[in-house]
Design brief:
By secondary structure, the chain is mainly alpha-helical. The chain has eight helices and no strands.
Amino acid sequence: MSVFTAVMQSLVAAAFLSIPLVRHRYGAVAMAGAQAELARQGVRTTVLAENGMRFDAGGHETAAPAAVAAVMAALAALNLSGGDWARPLTWIFQSLVLVANGLILYSQLTAAKSVQTAFRRKGDPALARIDVPALLKAAEDDFPAWTWTLQNLRHTVVFGASVLALTATALT
C-alpha cells in the first residue's frame, strides 16, 4: 500500500521500545533512589515492591510497549506487501495507538495524583504517609537527564507519525 505509511509505523514501533530500554538500563538505580527517599521519610523501603510499584522495565512496563511495537511492525510489513487488510487494520490500530498514547501522556502528567490515589486505596498506613511527589522526583533524578527529552520526542514521534500514517492511508 504505502512505503510512507510503513516507515511511519516503523517509527512508532521504535518509539514504543525506547522508554522500556531506558527503564531496563536505569530502573534499578531509580528504584534505589526511591527507596532512599522512603528511608528519608521513615517508611519501610520494601513498601513499593510489596505493592507492585517499580521503576524498571519489568511486567507490563515492557509487555505493553513491546506488543504495540510488534503490532506496528506487522502493520508496516502488511503495508509494504500491499495486503488487502493493510488499510482497515491501519485505521483501527493506528487510531488505537493515538488514543493509547494520549492516555500515556495524561498518566505521566498526573502521575503524582494517580499514585497518591492508588496508595490511599490500598489501605496501607505506610503508603498513605509517603510524600509521593518527593518519591517520584527521587526516582526521576536517577534517570539520565536526557530521558525526559527522549520521552517528549517519543510522544512527538508517536503522535506525528500516527497522524501522518492515517493521512497517507486516507489519501491512497
